[in-house]
Amino acid sequence: MIFVTVGTQLPFDRMISTIDAWAAAVGRTDVFAQIGPSQYKPKNIQFAEFLPADECRRKLEQATVVIAHAGMGSIITALEMGKPIIVMPRRSELNEHRNNHQISTAQKFLEQGTIHVAMDENELKQKLADVDNLRCCGTAGNQASPQLLSALSDFVNRGKLPGRVIVTKPEPHSTGADFRPATQTYR
Is the pTM for the entire model greater than 0.90? Predict the structure, then answer.
């Protein structure tokens, strides 16, 4: 099943209508979309405006691929579950959001190679053409590292800044077939 989510704050008709048209064109019946307060009502895919958190999680667990707006909650949850995700950022100039932070988010993840990104409807159609071959490009743990927790505790309780911070991030790669962490130290 392909699970599509636009989050809960705003509609994202441009993404939903693109996926709905694609599903009709290729005869896909295994698409479920959480569409939010959308003006566009899909004709070819199953949908709900909103889902309770537990039902949304079940849909994510059942999904073979997740397609979402470039919201951090959707991205992190898909990465935690090891699900391939395609994100398409909302654009403020199209009144899809208050600013273009989702474009910045998508560009950063694209540079890292951790998720699949479609910057517009045409790129989304290209990704959808190969949706059954998408693989997860990266993962995210669901718990903070002991080093991060210790550094935060020291800062909150003692006002102490850490002497160094070690950030582990994926290396950019072209295929997205594997995940290779790289470590960088900042002082």
Answer: no
